[in-house]
Amino acid sequence: MSKYRPTKFHSPDNGRATRIARFAATTTASAYLYPMSILRMQPQVDIHALITNPLHVPRLAFSSVSPPPLFCLSHQRDLYFKLQALYWTINFFLFTSSGIMNFGLERIHSLLEALNRPDEHTQIVHVAGTNGKGSVCAYISSVLRTCGYTVGRFNSPHLIEPRDSINVNGQAISQSLYDEAFAHVHQLNTNGAIGASSFECLVGAAFYVFGKAQLDFVVLEVGLGGLLDATNAIRHPAMTVITAIGLDHAHILGHTIEEIASAKAGIMKPGCPVVIAPQDTSSVLATLTHHADRTGSPYTLVQPSEFIQPNICQLDFDQVHYTYPIRLIGDYQRMNSATAVTALDWMYRLKLIEMTPEQLATGMQETRWPGRLDWVNDPVLLDNYGLKQILVDGAHNPPATVALRKYIDSLDRKRVVWIIGSTAGKDLHDMMKQLIRKEDVVYAVSFSLPAGMPWIKSSLPSDIAKEAHMAQSVECCTGLDEALVKAGSICTENDVAVLCGSLYLVADLYPTCAIHTCAAKKSVAAISPQEKPRTNLNVIDFFHPSLSSTLFHYTLNLGVSGYPKAGKPVEQLDDSNIYSSVQVGDDAYFKRQDALGVADGVGGWRSHKGANPALYSRKLMHYAQVELDRIKTNVRPQQLQAKADPVQVLESAYHMTTLDAQNEGIVGSTTACIVILCQDELRIANLGDCGVSVIRRNDYIFRSEEQQHSFNFPYQLGTASFDSPNDAQQFTVKIEEGDIVILGSDGLFDNLYDDEILEEVQNCIDQQTTTTTNNNTDGKNNGEKEDQNSMLHHIAPQTISDALAWRAKIVSEDPDNPSSPFQVRAMHEGLYYQGGKADDISVIVAIVKKDEQPPEPSPPPLP
């Protein structure tokens, strides 16, 4: 399966992409209209009409006339992101693995039946709404636990890791349990030919966990909408709750706020009590109560509680007086907490639970809900950036931004120093209008791609900055780290630092806090596998200056192996002797004792006349090698530390490659990873889905993450791509003698799991050390054994690279291989895929050893 190139609307199936493009053209906002001449779309279908009147949509195809590149006009960029987000949102929630878009609940019902209906063996509180769903779920769960009940909670999307969505008794489930649940559900989905979507599988996995735990209650948050959301497959909830409703996901749920309210009211069931939170518009309230009357659902309207003291609420409900403290801040928590208390009170009156006023007060006070008006004052994190504290809020729609600004105004600070990121497609103009004042300072950032959610795309910092023009100062930052540094440099006691705009940006901050906390206590090598962060592993944070020690100089002992994609010969490049890089199919690489690089030409270009992704990748690696030679020739050795920047090397190489492409008419694009060894650290720039790992004593101390716009559509440099070298992930990894560095194209990492790579590495070490020991005649006494670092001097890295490349090749060519990383990711996207991924395979293995001739130290300054 070739990777996608950025020339048209991307999806695993052009027919599916066409359907979504058609749907997008009928949404209310004019920004979602895509020119008919661009996509050659067939007659339009109204999304909302499909949701309210479910249909099977016939498969369509693009016109035989290829559409022009999507990126031909700058204003189309934001539109592309909106279409991309719309496609992946619908794909995640509604597309079956067979590619049919079916807005029904049949598949999730079939999945729950296959799981023996675990939802029928617990009492469920079902919560829908636009804002406040998470807080209400957290309040109810906390109080129920305080009352002695076992409680599961399902929220989406996850905050940091996918397993965060599934919570049992106040804790996210373990990664091993999450993997077990998803594997079980995937097997049922496949064996039963159910064809469930990714979100339906996630809901099924949650109920697998809840059923296994035999819980008293499950608090279930709706994913999208209500009526046709997978969570609505439950048949007998104990209670339903509707929180505040506003305009969000209008392109899917409806043209008006009343239509959105109708979709969310779809969770109401005959005879099941409904708690309805206060609403901003009377028409929404009328819609909800009408739906309750029509379905025969008894309902109660929540009365907002009042703050009688800071963070102490009072609620009078049906002749009962409740007073309770809350830790969650913000005026809107009066309504959220009152909604939760009203639901709990009704459950008590219905004798569903036993609860005392003291238990309610304790449970409300102990409720935590990260990312919503959350003051972060982690001392290690904030001291590093010069900030005493930072206010974190995931506000991303109009009601939430209004509430955030209202709370900030109550603080009576001189100005706000904003760090803002947003999901592409959001109304940035309205958001900035609500948040920014003329005395404020804005640092615009992007967030990293959240794990398992390829439909999410970050807005460009430049787009945010454009809409924040009313601020005193606006600046685009390359990442969150830079924004925090700059915010800390200007914040005074009269200012307030605020990070907001997206929960995905919040998710980038929280692991940083955890990593800094670990760094203060122990090095990464000392952290057990269970403790290692599984995402956003920016290893530079583990090596705070306070932890630095003796400086070593190292070099790399190298081995390289590779295989072109089987069955599809690639034209070899002419005059190959002029390049300092090596071609492997569409891959290319260079290697030196102080630097490595690999690039993977995007094979999706091969259908385009005149395209040559192999030449594009090879030129990029050639010019990276040239730039490194230039640096080493022109820079004094003692200055190399400051000059060895892999992003700058990639920028220079890309600039030269682009000039060649323009002059020679080359069309193509490529992913890339460059690693530079500088004294005792590796400096890494990775863009796309190549990868680099560092192994120490048969365990990973570092593993880069792939960057994907969507499934099998990686970040890439080249024709028609918006990505640039500055989009590359940057890492700095402290190394030791004997560390094993593995750099590879995705042909390696798509076909071999991490533990399989470890297994091959260790097998090679064991075989070679055994041979060396048996042949050792140097007279060691008393069975003395060399330690692994000493033995690695005898290891040929070529042996390891050969073993890895060969094993990846075997998997890639086996259509019946039972499992591969690429297959698992495809299945998570609701796509059927069997076997390994046929692709070019390039592997570079480097073993770190001490440099016998390190550069001379800098001369002393002249008097």
CA radius of gyration: 28 Å
Q: How much helix is in the residues?
A: 25-40%
- At CATH level 2, the architecture of the largest domain is 4-Layer Sandwich
Separation of termini?
65 Å
Shape: globular
Number of helices: 27
- The CATH class name of the largest domain reads Alpha Beta
- Would you tell me the overall average pLDDT? 76
- Give the uncertain stretches in residue-range form: 6-85, 94-101, 514-551, 779-785, 857-863
Sheet of most strands? 8 strands, mixed
Class based on secondary structure composition and strand pairing: alpha/beta
Number of domains: 4
Family: Belongs to the folylpolyglutamate synthase family.
GO molecular function, one term: metal ion binding
GO cellular component, one term: cytosol
Keywords: ATP-binding, Ligase, Magnesium, Metal-binding, Nucleotide-binding
Q: Keywords, please?
A:
single chain, 863 residues, alpha/beta, UDP-N-acetylmuramoyl-L-alanine:D-glutamate ligase, Protein-Tyrosine Phosphatase, Chain A, eight-stranded mixed beta sheet, seven-stranded antiparallel beta sheet, 27 helices, 36% helix, globular, metal-binding, ligase
Give a brief rundown of this model:
With 863 residues, the chain is α/β, with parallel strands linked by helices. A hairpin with a 2-residue loop joins strand 19 (582-584) and strand 20 (587-591). The longest helix is centred in the last third of the chain and has 22 residues, at 613-634.
